[in-house]
Amino acid sequence: MTGLGARLRAATDARGPLCVGIDPHAALLRAWGLPDSAAGARELALTVVDAAAPRVGIVKPQAAFFERFGSAGVAVLEEVIRAARAAGLLVIGDAKRGDIGSTAEGYAAAWLAEGAPLESDALTVAPYLGLGALDPLIRIAQEAGNGVFVLASTSNPEGVVVQSARTADGGTVAAAIAREAAARNAGAAATGEWGDIGVVIGATRPLSESGIAADALTTTPILAPGFGAQGARLADIGAIFGAASATVIPSVSRSVLEAGPEGIAAAIDAHRAELSA
Q1: How far is CA 228 from CA 163, 184, 188, 192, 245, in A?
Q2: Which sign, positive or negative, has the C-alpha torsion 153, 157, 160, 163?
Q3: CA-CA distance, 33 to 213, in Å (whole number)?
Q4: 7-39 pLDDT, tens per residue?
Q5: What average pLDDT score do residues 129-146 get?
Q6: Alpha carbon of 35 to those of 43, 65, 143, 272: distances in Å?
Q7: What are the backbone dihedrals phi and psi of residue 259, each rounded to the nearest 5 degrees, phi first?
Q8: Contact 58, 11 (CB under 8 A)
Q9: Cα-based angle 255, 261, 263 (whole degrees, multiple of 5)
C-alpha cells in the first residue's frame, strides 16, 4: 500500500506542489452567479475539480462551506471528494478535527478509513488536546494508506499568542508540534521519503518567528496557507521556509476562485507559472 507521503511526493513531482482550495462561501457563490445553496456549492466545486485536474495534483475542500447546508451539503462534499479522487487528484479534507479516544476514531471513520463516506487522502487535524490524543485517528488513517496535516503555526494572526507560547524547554508550542510530527516520520526520513504526518504552517511569517527549525522538516509535508489573498507570495517560498522548501505544498483559494468559472483555469496556470519562475 502506498502511503500519503509517497503519493504527495509523486503528485508534486508530476504536477508541481500547488494545492487549490475549494471554498464555496456565500460571497463567492454570488460572484459566480450561483445560488447560496448546496446546489450552488456543487456546481462551483465540480467546476474547480474539472479545472484543477489537468493542472495540479492536490485540492483542499473546506468542510465548513459544505456543512453549512446540512445533510444536503455533506452529500455534495462526499460527491466532490469522490469526483476529485476519480480525476486523479489527491484530496486534503480541511476540517480541522481533533479529539480523544473513541471520538478521534469516529472522525477517522468518517474521513480517513478505507471506504469512509468522506474518505480523503489526508485530513487537517488540531493537536491542542495533545498530538498523542490523535493516535487512534492517525493509526486508522495509516492503515488505509492515508494521513494527516497537524496544525502547527497557522496563518491567522489570532493564533500567534497560543502557538508562540513557550514550553518547558524554552521553545514554542508551534515548534514542539512540528518537532513531534517530524519525529513520527523518522522511518520515512531514513529512506529519504516523505512521511504520512504533515504539518500546517502558514506562509504569512518566516519559520524563524515561529521558532520552528526548517532542517527538521525536510521529509515532513508542509501544507502552507496564506498565499494570494492573505498576502504571501509564491515566489517567496524559499525565503519563508528555507531548508524545508522542498516539502511545501502552497495552498491558494480566493486568488484562484475569484477569477470566476471562466477564469479559474487561467488563474491556476498563472499561479503555477509564479511557482516555477
Answers
A1: 23, 31, 32, 31, 18
A2: negative
A3: 45
A4: 999 999 999 999 999 999 999 999 999 999 999
A5: 96
A6: 10, 13, 40, 30
A7: -75, -15
A8: yes
A9: 60
In the chain the beta strands, taken as DSSP E runs, fall at 19-22, 58-61, 90-97, 122-125, 147-153, 197-201, 222-224, 248-252
Is the pTM here over 0.85, yes or no?
Answer: yes
pLDDT tens digits, residue range 91-130?
999 999 999 999 999 999 999 999 999 999 999 999 999 9
What's the whole-number average pLDDT of the chain? 94
* Residue 206 pLDDT > 90: no
Alpha-carbon dihedral of residues 91, 97, 98, 101, nearest 10 degrees? -80
Q: How far apart are CA 272 and CA 160, in angstroms?
A: 29
CB 228 within 8 A of CB 23: no
190 band by pLDDT with thresholds 50, 70 and 90: low
User: Active-site residue numbers?
Assistant: 96
Hey, CA dihedral for 252, 257, 258, 259, is it positive or negative?
positive
CA separation, residue 34 to residues 37, 64, 90, 229 (Å): 8, 18, 26, 22
In contact, 19 and 60? CB cutoff 8 Å: yes
> From the CB of residue 187, how many other CB atoms can be counted at a distance below 10 Å?
11
Measured distance CA(40)–CA(38) in Å, rounded: 5
End-to-end CA distance of the chain: 35
Separation of alpha carbons 87 and 168, rounded Å:
47
Q: How far apart are CA 266 and CA 245, in angstroms?
A: 25
All residues at 6 or more sequence positions from 137 whose CB lies less than 8 Å from its CB, including other chains: 97, 104, 105, 107, 108, 112, 123, 125, 148
